[in-house]
TrEMBL record:
It comes from the Bacteria. This is DUF4295 domain-containing protein. InterPro entries: DUF4295. It comes from Bacteroides intestinalis DSM 17393.
Length: 52
């Protein structure tokens, strides 16, 4: 499985939430083709996203 962190985005002030756009390549169990799962997640949740 391939994984990639694309960009980190910070909202306004340093106290605001920081998000990261992440892309994970997932193999379809039906067809065997690869699809991309792309989401915006909190920086604290990036590792959890890739563990799934």
């Amino acid at each position: 499985m391939a994984k990639k962190t694309v960009a980190s985005l910070h909202e306004g002030s340093k106290e605001g939430r920081a998000y990261t756009k992440v892309i994970k390549m997932v193999k379809s169990p039906k067809t065997g083709a690869y699809i991309f799962d792309e989401q915006m997640v909190l920086n604290e949740k990036v590792q959890d996203f890739f563990k799934k």
